[in-house]
Amino acid sequence: MDAAQIRKTFLEFFENKGHRIVPSSPMVVKNDPTLMFTNAGMNQFKDIFLGNKQVDDKRVADTQKCLRVSGKHNDLEEVGVDTYHHTMFEMLGNWSFGDYFKKETIDWAVELLLDVYKIDKDRLYVTYFDGDTSDKLEADVNTHELWKHHFDQDRILGFGRKDNFWEMGETGPCGPCSEIHCDIRNDEDRATIDARELVNKGHPQVVEIWNLVFIEFNRNKDQSLTALPKKHVDTGMGLERLAMVLQGKQSNYDTDIFMVLIRAFEKLLSDHSYSHSSNKEDIAFRVVVDHIRAVSIAIAEGQLPSNTGAGYVIRRILRRAIRYAYSFLGVRESLIHKLVPHLVTSLGKVFPELKSQADLVEKVIKEEEESFLRTLEKGIERFEKYLEEHPGADVIDGQFAFELYDTFGFPVDLTELMAQEKGILNGVNQAGFKAELGKQKDRSRAAGKIDAGDWIVLVEDEVEEFVGYDQTSTDVRITKYRQVSQKGKDLFQLVFNITPFYAESGGQVGDTGYIQSQGERIEILDTKKENELIIHISDTLPTDPSLDFKAFVDVNRRERIKKNHSATHLLHHALRTLLGSHVEQKGSLVHPDYLRFDFSHFEKVSEKDLSRIESMVNEGIRHGIALEEMRSVPLPQAKKMGAMALFGEKYGDVVRVIKFGDSVELCGGTHVGNIAEIGHFKIQSEGSISAGIRRIEAITGDAADNFLSEELDTLEQLRQLLKNPADVKSGLKKLLDEHQALQKELEAMKKERSRDMAGDLESKFEDIGAVKALISTVDLPGGEIKDLVFSLVKKHSNSMIALASSQGGKAVLTIGLGPDAMKAGLSARKLISESAPLISGGGGGQDNFATAGGKNPGGIDAALEKIREMISDF
Ligand code: SER
Fold it and tell me: Which of 234, 240, 241, when mutated, tests ligand 1's pocket best, judged by the most ligand atoms within 8 Å of its CB?
């Protein structure tokens, strides 16, 4: 059974058990500060488990794109080294939201594995939670009993919190879990060691394939557990491992999922082939084919590699692949991106964004590869230099290894490897490296981390309602609050029962404003979202947070934001109309003062097209189109209306559709009632932000008007300066032409003056010592003297020219020597350095030409005399 069939079978099985099949949520998480990437199938349902979101379906199933490279579940260093960990993997799962519980979950798992997939029962072992004293939790005897209906007692194993209590992160939904493990060892190995000894021991062939979690609690910040209002089921089965079992392989990489990519990479390399071993070459193959999946999906979802946050993690994963290919497969040019089409063939149907963004994905990876390969080379040069500077070193300094890591992206194991290759006895000083790394971590922690305390709940069970589409002020109560410290500053996060404040999301910045009660006014500095929760940020806590408050959004700011947001939609539509439907939104920022729109497009947008886009938008604004806002449209219906999806949606979302004529978008932002309110739209800049992604910045409303009146003002001033010509442009052109003609004339005159001067000076040459000397003052600016000196030196090969002038209270000395004078041993530089002090200055130059400037023109005669003396003595 190939992977596609395995996936299909799973979904159909649960569909037949009354589950709705839902799409995978994005792998890159937005709006959740506690999680960067989806690390389990249940993430998109977190709010349903916590009781913050209601949905119609009580049973759902899907295949979810997961990434485990940061936070609690981090497998990155294992990936490729072993045969069953991955960065990106698919998690097949079935969920019950307060519906069925342990019995059905267990019965169905057995039915699917044994009756449908036909796994040999003899190879399966199951586990259950056997309690935890610190959490005061009893053993899950219920699960134990249920398993007894299917397996002999000796195949049912109890484990503690570490293995059998599943938690999404430091905080969040959690509960006891029950795992199904499969022993895929050969008969001989099976006869030698009892599989029960190997369950949960990290054995590559006695592996967990399915985790059945019974979500019952929320883990709080102080580590205590609170029981959830309802009990839920969350199961997760890694598709890649299941494929290994069902395809009778010993490694996930030997399944069809990875082998297509491995074969394709072998072809690209031509001089390496995969041999299913644990040698470095094979690890490199596995790293490359694993990482290309994670990176491609992230980019297809709009998460480009960058230097911060999720983008940085993606960049690091890609660099790990490039580095392995570089170090162990001799890859010196960008090759990895060429795997993208193969990936699209195998996964494009399941994850359609991969297909629609294939070109962009390939291009971005190629550019990243090229630039990192250049960096690698530079780093290697730096390493060579270090070795030259430390001849005979028997260890690489930890600080230097850190420099390579920090500046050139060299992980320490690469430096270690290079050290070994160079015969450095003790490799890298790992302790020193770790110390530097620790210091850096502390620095970044101090710079950005939000340290949040527990919520203080004032009113239980209030679901926060957002009324900001219709109201900008309303009566509110604070339902809970907590103190946070960020960059050493204490702030408060307030949650209301109802709020008119828009929380930062979808590119639109959060509202500001204030709340007021009994004469006390608390400023709301920003509004942010944490999952579905709208959090208002203030630097003061009200004296009595339990009072009733009136909340006011800063209306003027909100109005400007609305104009910019609606204009962003019009811009998006105009770009697609004019440039083509390959244009897709890749990011945006809707700010009160301006808007920014990032989109996929492979070349610069010409000035002509930019002005056409601007006109299209302005024409729409002049014409005026009323907003059609549909608040609760089920996601599939919205897509049918032609709304452009943003890939941020989760299962169960009812979306808001914003329509201005032909522009239809899924959007949660605030908008003008009619685009005529925007008044004016003006593009300020267009440029590239990374491979295949362009950015337009623009302004609207008063900002656009002010910009234009300032420009007109400048034009008016220009007109006046030009003495009011009929046409400013030709007036300015005339002036520039005149300027150019005068410039030419001036140059000619200068040349003539210098020729005349040279002629006059000819008579002043005198024979002093071994040279023909010209020692004189001249009335010329410094720049012209140089030309004069060179023209005189050219004529007289045995000459020594020393010219001095005073301009604007300063003295300038210039000395030039003909080739014969130099051969005789004179040096312009020496003559200058001895004479310059007499004009209270200093200077320098070469043996043939030197200059000095000084602040004492009164010393010129003495300086020239000194030069005379020096050459006479020669
Ligand atoms: N949440 C569990 C896991 O990730 C089961 O889906 O293993």
Answer: 234
